Amino acid sequence: PGPQFQGPGFPSSARTASAQRAHPKPPAMAPSMATSLARQAAAFRLEHAVPETSIRRREATAPSVLFTPDEAKRHDPAEFAALAERGLVALAAEEPDVAAFGHLFQGPQRDRETLQREENNRLSGEIRHLLVLMSPHLQLRCAQEVLEGLLHRYHVHRWNVDDVIAAALPYHDSPLFTRLLQGLHVKANPRWSWLQRLKEKPASLVRGTLAKYCTKDLSVLTFIGDLAIEAAKLQKPNRPLATLFTSVWLDTLAAVQPASADLVRAALPPLMLLLRRPHLQDLFHAALAVSVALSLKTDLDPTVRGHLLERMARQVSGEQGSSAVSALAAMAQLQCGDRHGAAAVPEKVLQALALAGHEALLAVHTRGLDCANLLASMVSASLGPLSTKEEAWPFIAGVLSDHDALDDCAEPLALAALQAMTEGAEQPAEQRKRIQEALRMIAQRQPVALGRAFRKAAEVAAKFGRSVEDLVRFASPFCSFVSVGEQPSEKGSALMVLQAISHKSSKVRAKAVAEVAARLADEAGTSGGGEGGRLLVGLVLQATEDSNVQVVQNALQVEALWSKHPMLSPAAALPVLEGVLARSLSAPAASASLAELTTSVLQDPQTSPL
Predict the structure, then answer these.
(1) What are phi and psi of 104, to 5 degrees?
(2) Contact 498, 472 (CB under 8 A)
(3) Residues of 128-148 as b/e, b for ≥16 C-beta within 10 angstroms?
């Protein structure tokens, strides 16, 4: 440096020239180039929600789940990396796969703003995978140490907002999520911008608020479903996520009436996949619960319903068979029938259950579980005119041979068999034999239920314009005094008996019951009744439920019906006698004769053990 010239005697121009020679200016940038770079920088900041502050400033303001802001400022990047590495080692004892991500916290820290797009995408994919693996364990200290390292080393609160929420959303009402949310950049994220108000006035995200928002924006429900799909594809159990999936879906469905087509479409992808993962018990049970809740809210499209039922049916013989049968029974009750009877299940469902075998179904069937509609729907499918599955009949025969199942479901099973006959214009001979065999098996155990089903089938046939005569002619083998070729108009035909017993006049009903009971008493005393009296036994026993006391008395007056008739099993007699006894005791003054008759029946040596 030359001498310092200062003072008023030295010209200012000379001082300026000397300074310019000592410190020359850098070459000027073209105005167009400066404008272009500024536009690119502004676009990048807008795309990634980057504030116009220095990297050091952003590092200092990164959120923390373990430290206060002042404590976090006292740690440098190397200390956060060491903390995350220690957390990974401890977390690997719970989830071994996280050990493969140790390289994320090794080496110098890199500025993500200077990385190429492809490299940033690859890095985000690795971070996403790690967060998904960490999610079931996020309440552990070691998992939070790893999350702390990701926040300070990779600024995931800004670059991976969806991924952080994916890991933490199952704990949405916990202090951890509330604290983490304060640092997440959700304002510029269309899916999560509604959470901004919880940042401005810090509060927990309760389940009701989350479900209420889901009724307006299905993208959050879809996001939760995608998380469940991702966990299932990784073959990783995740109870917190399963709980979130179930609770949010149930609350959302409870808030809508009915469920829209868009809501059903949002539910199908995770349900279809999770129902094929019974080894992931929590996620599998979540799918069962949501499927049943969806069935409660809307009439599902037959194709959708068939797919859901088929996936459940394939799990009947597995470890989760009991839960699968419960869900099948509930969906069949809600979706596969009405007051006129059960609708047939799709053939793929019947085939899946037939392959599992009736033993598998009955092994998990309990007396408290209402499987009536499910079993009746299977009977409709296997005995209906469109059935093509030969392996279905052994399954149905096995179910009908089980006394517990038959005692619980005899009437809907008999109704399904009768309707399978009336709905087909031309039944093949082999199919008709199977229907008659099914009715014979029901009549042996539950003639009363057969009588109820026969009357209901006749009512339904008449309502829909089908031939009641054909129904009676088909059932004629169960009526000892009606031959197959007999005309229904002849006196004493089964059709006339059915019409008389169902007549609106109590006098006509009482006379018809007395005549049929007398005929059955004669048969029991001579030929023992044979195979033909089962349907009439059921019709007479059903008359004990009549509103008119005289009809009930006529049904009870034939002692042979109780003490000698071979068609009457204890399983059928006991509920009938219980009903009559309760009725006679409820109003003894008005029906003294009925009470007296009931007492005499109960004192009979054949019925007293009951």
Answers:
(1) -65, -20
(2) yes
(3) bbbbbbbbbbbeeebbbbbbb
Residue matched to tokens 């019925």: 607
Question: Is the separation of the CB atoms in 233 and 277 below 8 Å?
Answer: no
Q: Does pTM surpass 0.85?
A: no
| pLDDT averaged over every residue in the chain | 79
Helix, strand, or coil (residue 236): coil
- Sequence-ordered list of residues with C-beta below 8 angstroms from that of 488, at least 6 positions apart, any chain: 469, 472, 473, 494, 495, 496
At 308, give phi and psi (nearest 5°). -65, -45
169 or 375, greater pLDDT: 169
The number of residues making up the chain comes to 610
Q: Extract the tokens encoding 361.
A: 């179904």
Separation between Cα atoms, residue 402 and residue 409, nearest integer Å = 11
CA–CA gap between residue 144 and residue 137 (Å, rounded): 9
Terminal CA-to-CA distance of the chain, rounded, Å?
124
Judge if the upstream peptide bond of residue 258 is cis by omega within 30 degrees of 0.
Answer: yes
- Is residue 231 within 8 Å of residue 270, measured between CB atoms? no
| CA–CA distance, 306 with 348 (Å, rounded to integer) | 8
| Residue range 124-171, pLDDT digits in tens | 999 999 999 999 999 999 999 999 999 999 999 999 999 999 999 999
Rounded to whole angstroms, the Cα distance separating 422 from 474 reads 9
Q: Which helix (H) or strand (E) holds 341?
A: strand 341-342
Q: Can you give the pLDDT at residue 154?
A: 94
Report the distance separating Cα 333 and Cα 374, nearest Å.
7
**How is 292-312 classified by DSSP, letter by letter?**
HHHHHHS---HHHHHHHHHHH
Residue 82 pLDDT: 94
Task: Evaluate whether 202 touches 192 at the Cβ level (below 8 Å).
Answer: no
CA distances from 445 to 14, 399, 402 (A): 124, 13, 10
Between CA 434 and CA 463 the distance in angstroms is 26
Determine the Cα–Cα distance for residues 516 and 501; give it in Å rounded to an integer.
9
411 CB-side CA count, 13 A: 16
Radius of gyration, CA atoms only, the chain: 39
Burial 48-65 (b: 16+ CB within 10 A, else e): eebeeeeeeebbeebbbb
**Integer Cα distance of 567 and 273 in angstroms:** 50
